[in-house]
Structure formats: structure tokens, C-alpha cells
Design brief:
Radius of gyration: 20 Å
Number of strands: 4
Strand order of the largest sheet: 1-4
Strand content: under 5%
Helix content: over 70%
Shape: globular
Number of helices: 14
Distance between the termini: 43 Å
Order of helices and strands: HHHHHHEEEHHHHEHHHH
Largest sheet: 2 strands, antiparallel
Length: 320
Amino acid sequence: MKNSLTRFAAFVAIILVIPFLMKESYLINVMVFVGINTMLAVALNLLLGYAGQISLGHAAFFGLGAYISGVLTATHGMNPWLVMFAAAAVVGMLAFLIGFPILKLKGHYLAMATLGFGIIIYIVFNETVDITGGPSGLSGIPNLQLGQMTFDTDLKNYYLIWFFTLLVILFAVNLTNSRIGRSLRAIHDSEVAARVMGVNARLLKVQIFALSAVISSLAGSLYAHTMAFVAPASFGFNFSVELLTMVVIGGLGSVYGSFLGAALLTLLPEFLRFLHDYDIVFYGLLLMLMIMFMPGGLVRGIPALLRRVTSRRREGAADA
């Protein structure tokens, strides 16, 4: 537990310092998206990496949080903070209700069911033009305010987003180190064995599914109030796959691995603009190399690679 707190404190220190190391406001804005994607990757990792339940529809929960906050604040003038937490509660209840029938399925059947849910929500965003603005999107969403301070600059948004992201990371670390976290890992390894040991596997899977949806909804609300605009294209199947890739590349069953995966796949496009339409080829190659040489993801692969390099140097020095 002490090591976890030390690691978290060091991570917080790095996050606080990052804006002072960046000369361009644009890079700070990119780090805002790293924070949002980290929240989403942590949410999906709790479900996939720890409980072993795959989801291809998590972009739907992200979109529901964004649109509920956007519509109720931009159209009806409601308090953004109240709406944000109300949206998380509504999305969590929805996930809890659909979780019971969906999570009876396993493997590719579960993946297809969550994919179907995501497609349905995406179609709703597109077709309810009078409410969501349809394919053109919804604009006029107000920035969040705290007293007299409005979060309307990249630096303010950076600290706002990362405040919530760090809370989510701290919560996830404590959860995964608790009895519930051990139960989730038991379900991941063998659901039958977990049931024999007294774990209510079905209820726990539904609960972690709902919790994952709540975190995704919160990220969606923050995204809406940061961008002041939302459109269905941001919450489609492609983004669900991107989230899944973040989790796999960062490391399944690792909270900080979720950050590494989110950071890599958020920052890479900024350095690959010269590839134009061929950047997807690079992503495919990266994923292949990761699976071949770092199946445990970056969080486990990098230390293992360093150990191999150190070991070879020692052997070379001994032979010399």
C-alpha cells in the first residue's frame, strides 16, 4: 500500500510539472485529451483487464455523458456540475440494467452484444436531430465554472481534467488492491473457481460494468464542457476500438498501463501528420509489434526489455 501511494505521489508531481515544460499552448491542449482518454482507458481496463469482460461499446457511455451534459446545459440552461453527476448516475443505472442480460454472454458473443449497444446509441445521436443536432453536432455548451473562475483556457482545462483523472486513478488503484480487486482477478482467471470460493460473479461483473460506464460518462461530460461542442462522430465504433487498443498496448490489468496506452495513442497522431492517410498502417504495425514482443503491454514490456539489455551487457562485460 505504501509503494502504491509513493508511486501515485510521484505520478501527481509529474502531472503538475508538465505544463511548465511545454512552451506551446497546443501541446497542453493535447495533454487535456490524454487525461480524458486515460479516464476512459482506466474505465475499460477495470472491465477488461481485471474482470476479463470485453466491451466494444464503451464509446456509447462516453457519448451519453457528453450529450446529456451538453443538451441539458446548452438547451435548458441547467447547472453543469449537477448535470454532470446526474448524467453519470443515469448512465450507471442504464449500464446496470443492460448488464444483467449482456454479461450472461461470453467471449465474442459479449463483444457483439456491446457492439450492438454502441451502434444503437450512435444511431440515436445521429437521428434525434431536434435534440442532439444530428450529424452536425451540438454547440453552445458552456464551460465549467468554479466560483468566479471559468475553465476557458487550455491551462485551466488541463488542471480541471487531470484533477478528475487523478481521482479516477487513485480510486482504481485502491479498488484493484482491495478484496473486490482480488475477486475481479479471480473472475478473470476462472469464473467457475471464483464462484466456488464464494464470489457472486454475476453481480460483481454487472457492478464493475456499471462503474466503468459511470467513469466513461464523467469523462464524456468533461469532454463536452471542455470542447463546448459534441458530434456523433466522436463516439462511434472506431473510438471504441481505439480505447481497446489503448488498454492492450498499455497493459491489461494495469491502471498506470492505461495511462501509457492513452498517452501513446493520443500523442502519436500529432507526430504522424506527415503520414496523412497512412498513419493507420503505422498503428497496425505498432499493434503487431506490441503483441509479438511485448504481450504484457508497455507497463510490463519496458521493464522486461531493460532487464534483458542489462543482462546482455553484464554477459558481454563478463566475456570481455
